[in-house]
Amino acid sequence: MIEFMFAVAIGMLFGIGVFQLLRRDLIKAAIGFAILFSAINLFFVAVGAFEGDFAPYVSNVEAGRSTSDPLVQALILTAIVVSFGSFSLVLGFVNIISRRFDTVDSNDINKLKH
Amino acid sequence: MELVFISAAPFVLALALALPIAPRILNQTRQTLLSSLVMAALFAWLLSFFPSVQNEGAVVQTFDWAPSLGISLSFYLDGLSLLFALIITGVGALIFFYAGSYFDEASEYNRFMIWLSGFAGAMLSVVLSGNLLMMFVAWELTSVTSFILIGFKGADDAEAREGAFKALFVTGGGALALIIGIIMLSVAAGQILYPEAGLRFAADFSEILRASSLAQHEWYTLFAILIILGGFTKSAQFPFHFWLPGAMSAPTPASAYLHSATMVKAGIYLFARLSPVMYQNELWSGTLLTTGLLTMLVGAFFAVKQRDLKALLAYSTVSKLGAIVAMLGLPGQIGVKAALVGIIAHALYKSALFLVAGTIDHATGARDIDKLGGLRQRMPAMFAVTVISALSMAGMPFFFGFVAKEVMLDAMLRYEGSLSLLVMLALIFSAAFTAMAAYMLIYDVFLKQPRHKLHFHKPPSLIRLAPLLLSALSLSLGFLLEPVITPLLTPAVPKSFELHLFAGFNDVFALSLGILLAGFALFLARRPVIARIDLPLSCDMIYKEMLEYIGWAGRSVLHTQSGYVRYYLSIILGAVSLLLLVSNTLPSWGEILSYIPSDLSLTITDLAKVFMLILTVTAGILTVVVREHVKAAIAYGVIGYAIGVIFLIEHAPDVALVQLLVETMATVLIIIMLGRIRTRTRYNVIQNLWRGRHSYKLGLVRDLVISFTIGGAVFIFSLIALRNRPEQQSIAQWHLDNARLVATEDVVGAIVADFRGTDTLLEIAVFTTAALGVLTLLARGRQSGSAFVPRTAQVGSLREFDDEVVDEIQDATSLSTPFTRTVSYIVLPIAILIGIAQILYGGVGPGDGFTAGVTIGLAVSLWYIVLGYDEAKRQLPWFRPEIITRLGLVIAIVNAAIPLLLGRGFMEHVQYDQELGIYDLVGSFGLHLTSSLIFEIAIAITVMGGLGIIMEAIAYPAARSNGGQQSTDAVHATE
Prior knowledge:
The complex is a heterodimer of chains A (about 110) and B (about 1000).
Chain A: H1 2-22, H2 26-46, H3 58-62, H4 70-101
Chain B: H1 2-18, H2 22-25, H3 28-47, H4 50-56, E1 58-66, E2 71-78, H5 79-102, H6 106-128, H7 132-150, H8 158-193, H9 205-208, H10 220-234, H11 243-246, H12 252-261, H13 266-278, H14 282-303, H15 309-329, H16 336-364, H17 380-394, H18 400-414, H19 420-447, H20 465-476, H21 481-489, H22 507-524, H23 526-532, H24 539-559, H25 565-582, H26 589-595, H27 604-625, H28 629-649, H29 653-675, H30 679-690, H31 696-723, H32 731-738, H33 747-755, H34 757-778, H35 791-801, H36 818-841, H37 849-875, H38 881-901, H39 912-916, H40 919-923, H41 931-955, H42 963-974
Antiparallel strand pairs in B: 1-2
């Protein structure tokens, strides 16, 4: 059951992120971009090979307690920081666009053609 | 191992010449000596392989590259590649020497030699590589260096640019075909050699040459055609020959080297290399034979019409290349001997002739045959070279070219195809025209009286050396067949053979003499003959038409472009969703229903998770429906925190800690960024979105459908993934069991800093790159290290620029109250202490380098927010983010490299406390001094520096950054 709920939440978050990206408001698009990252991180923590009742510490393992999957956690750990880096880059882009074109509406910018 | 050095040596030479200090240490003479000595040494070194090639057949040296794919860095030296490599290095040494006197200007010479040596390395790699894929890489390198050398004078010569582009267009296009052919051939060879191995590349020559049934493979037709296309474009075969005359804008040493002696023979090398496994098929031999003959005719025919000396030589090269290709196409490999002798002879006489052309150009400034004349007295050495080389080209008895022509005629006479008479005629015809061109070279350039007086300045005397040596070889090699040529060719020719300078008065000799006489007759009647040579349509014209069409097609495609990034995104994502819907990737409705669980029971922890998930999704929906950006940003922050709590419930304390910290940072970042965008701008977009125009409804539906489909697909994907988890066989169990090996209590920390340490190293590098990106975007024009500017100046410039701007968080300085200042003063030292504690004791509890870095970074960003850029810079003079980041990365890399010095693997775990015998001392503080601890420190420093860079960029006053302003001008300028 909880897996189903996780899948629903991940799907919805992803859909929201994509929707935000498709809208005209660049600021919200940046937020949508960040929501996509969150959805992916959520997916990773949910998809860990096994669940346990204790944090993955050596002492817990040696005591024979069931621990959570450390591998996905390590993957997310670095992913969070890197996604923050790219998120700040996106914000930087939005900022520079607003300064350069005096708008954050992507419908007002079609300079790609020229 | 030696072969690696041989093929790398010219590259090293190129790099050495490219060093900024090279021209200062070495003058032109010394550079010349150095580079030609390197080539000569390589020639000698290659020659030393000759005995082993003779005895063993092939020297193979292999280094694993991607062994699972069957790709290796391998070198293969057999008779064929040795012959080519000797030509490349031998002729190369002479031409390198010649180039030293050809160029008058030292800087130009240096630039030329860098690229010429680079080309030599690439060309040597083509013939020495033992793997088709590696050969292809080198093949492309020769195209690129050739492009640069043809366009050498491109800066002020449109023709050179055009010629360079043409050459790259044709050879590069052929290479596209070639790579597909190579991949198909390698897969086919893999199927033949390892029938049970599935998809496996067999790209090594030692493998391919064993796959003898390649010619019967079902893909044969396709890959043979593709490979032939690649070879034809490179070796200037009809109808792709037109790029070679166009390439004559290159400086003459390059023309002599690339476009006559070596590069244009790469295609021939490829054909000769693959012939043993390809020739059994009619397609291969038929195509090579007909195209070769046609090229031979076209080249010989048009050569005599050329007025430019180099163009004449280029067309005659085309003709000779065609003849060699035709020889390779003779069935049963009977023409291989003739082809190889032809290659040697051609390399010798044609590069000598090119060098003569270059010398004449250098001396008189003219290359037009009609203007030249009477140079015999002024350039006697060049006259001698031309007589010898041109007669060798014509096939005059007892020159080396004569031998080449004899064996060629002999091979043709033995050819018993249906059209053997026609083939013979073509050969005779083109040979006669070649002889005519040779006579023209001698008479028109050196003997006849020039129409106008020629400008003449004496070239340096050393310029004569290389052409003289080359022509001496043309003269003498004919008499050295037994001791030199026959043993050299024996390992490269499949059958045993004999070579004779004079085989008696047989029919071949009679033919030879007949050709020479016919050539002389044509020469006497040259004016009417040349006047008749004309074709209404040349390949060059077709090429130009084609370029026009490509340009036209490009312009028409542009009409379909909107230029709005948003629409491209909808098209991409819409296409993805359409694919998902149309293809049967998505499960059917019934299947989806079956996924809905029947058991609805939840434990208490599950309930908590569900609550947090609902919170996440609700906040997500809120970011869509709220209008104000600040509220959306706060809703986004809620998502981040809720996910952090989920991490906590999932027993992932480290991740939760990082998530909470980073999310705080991200939310702060959005809000500051909002403050830097004009309120009116943001208001406008909200107005546009919520009181939209007519198309609004349709667009909304489209976006909703796309995002719903993609969200649904992600939902199904994650549901399937979540239901099929690997459980206990996962590698995660291994990490749990082995974490104690690296003396870390926290398994996640052990994975980040040890087991997957290289990954982490790259991740922090990526993070730094992103941070630098923000800096370049927002703080352009900022002088690095410009610590403090008086604050009044900052405020002044703000006013001047931002009169109507920003009413909310106008500038960060507006947050500066005594209270906030005190808080930020207090927070920073505490944060630093927490960070240090997290690094040192992160091994036993939650927290690691990342959290430490983000914690300190947060405290520093508080300073920037509260005090503003200039004040923070003044108060924290030690906080220089770029330097800190650099320091962190350097520590990380050095720490990763130290185990290499200790004879272990890159980034291997080292317990320094035990190595140094201070285990108990450090242990009494509860610490373990290991490489992972140092790596954690490096991570913390890098992340802190990266965050600092981002904060500095954001806090940097917009008015002072010339990024936006300057670029607006640039945009206007392009319109």
